[in-house]
Amino acid sequence: MNIKFCIIFSLFLRNVIARGGDRINPLSSASDLGFPNHGYVVLARHLFEDNQARHPRTDITRGYMTNSELEKAVKEFGRRCSHISRVYSIGKSVQGFPLLVIEISDKPGKEEPEPAFKFVGNVHGDEPVGRELLILLANWICDNYMRDPLVNLIVDKVHLHILPSMNPDGFSLKRRGNANDIDLNRDFPDQFFPWNNDEDARQPETKAIMSWLREIHFTASASLHGGALVANYPWDGSLDKRKHYYACPDDGTFRFLASIYSKSHYNMSLSKEFEGGITNGAAWYPVYGGMQDWNYIYGGCFELTLEITDNKWPNAMELPTIWEYNKMSMLNLIASLVKTGVHGRVFSSDRGRPLSGLITIKEINYTDIREHFGICEVLFFSVQDAISAEF
Ligand SMILES: *[C@@H]1O[C@H](CO)[C@@H](O)[C@H](O)[C@H]1NC(C)=O
Ligand SMILES: *[C@@H]1O[C@H](CO)[C@@H](O)[C@H](O)[C@H]1NC(C)=O
Ligand SMILES: [Zn+2]
């Protein structure tokens, strides 16, 4: 078995202090984010149960894939594009719907010394744009392999894993939570508060993600949400529960990655609320039990939370435009794993066995993830070394 590892870092450390969050302060006001056609107000983002009980007059699901149509689309993709993909399941939702993943790579299913990236859509059942975009992304990559250099780079040098819907039950119920009405983006173990530590008590969708991460050592990932337009990065939670910028050890790298998304997007970086279209999670509003911080702490995986539409559930006619707005962001974010960073393999000196390894940059105090992975070899680099390292 090949053991792979990869770490990315930023050479473009900038002092960006993300602002914003004002209009989603739960104690002051809930903003009207639109939906004029449907005659109801969507309350802000993650903080609120988004009551679909407000009875939209028209069927908001029109033009969106149902769960069985999504399953069909994934399986059709797997057949049509079998030369560079495979389809697998990481578990089932509460109501027994399979959580299907598309892996795209020139050697799908094979472990290689290449970074793995994952996209997760539809974490919140009532934020369905991501699941549509991820199917479009997979098909666009399939159609443009051998035609587009960026796509070639992704297929040849990255293992891309796409979970279009983490919460199919919430989608069919048109609500934020899963079938047990649990917000999955509050269901992960948290670094500051122990209430989610019992893994057995987690929701099946959460457990599926947790064991997925143990199996595949993702370098980076992003989940797709709706209700705002911003690329959000760790920490999502602050120790004192207050709203303020709370930087994680890899703050510079995260700002770099979030900026890749925002700057490649049609207009995310033009945000008036968030400087550069990016924000530290805790500076916006603190979240505990979220998937993003958990990925970083327990998996060493650099996860962003991408809010890609102000409307959580826009008219399906807008989907092709939203896809165009996000296409380059998605591709550039994945490709950044190859275009930056340190990649390589570590072999034992005696019999040439591959070893599990971890690269650390001397100047950065990492959260220690070794205990979670049984990693034995630690390679230390200084930032200067790392810039030029390739081994
Ligand atoms: C981005 O463009 C969309 C569609 O034109 C618009 O609704 C939104 O307000 C714009 N956002 C920013 C930050 O410019
Ligand atoms: C890292 O931790 C060490 C020891 O706790 C401390 O002396 C140092 O200032 C820290 N460095 C950074 C960049 O936080
Ligand atoms: Zn969300």
UniProtKB/TrEMBL annotation:
Classification via Pfam families? Peptidase_M14
Instruction: List the GO cellular component terms.
Output: extracellular space
| Residue ranges of every copy of the Peptidase M14 domain listed in the record | 63-337
Q: Which domain of life is it from?
A: Eukaryota
**From the record, what ranges are coiled-coil?**
none
Question: Which UniProt keywords are listed?
Answer: Carboxypeptidase, Glycoprotein, Hydrolase, Metal-binding, Protease, Signal, Zinc
| SUPFAM superfamilies hit by this protein | Zn-dependent exopeptidases
InterPro entries recorded: CARBOXYPEPT_ZN_1, CARBOXYPEPT_ZN_2, Peptidase_M14, Peptidase_M14_domain
| Transmembrane regions | none
Under Gene Ontology molecular function, one entry of this record is: metallocarboxypeptidase activity
Report the leader peptide range.
Answer: 1-18
Identify which cofactors the protein needs according to its UniProt entry.
Answer: Zn(2+)
* Catalytic residues as annotated in Swiss-Prot or TrEMBL: 307 (proton donor/acceptor)
Could you mention a single GO BP entry for this protein? protein processing
Q: Which family does it belong to?
A: Belongs to the peptidase M14 family.
Q: What is this protein called?
A: Carboxypeptidase D-like isoform X3
Annotated organism of origin: Hibiscus syriacus (Rose of Sharon)
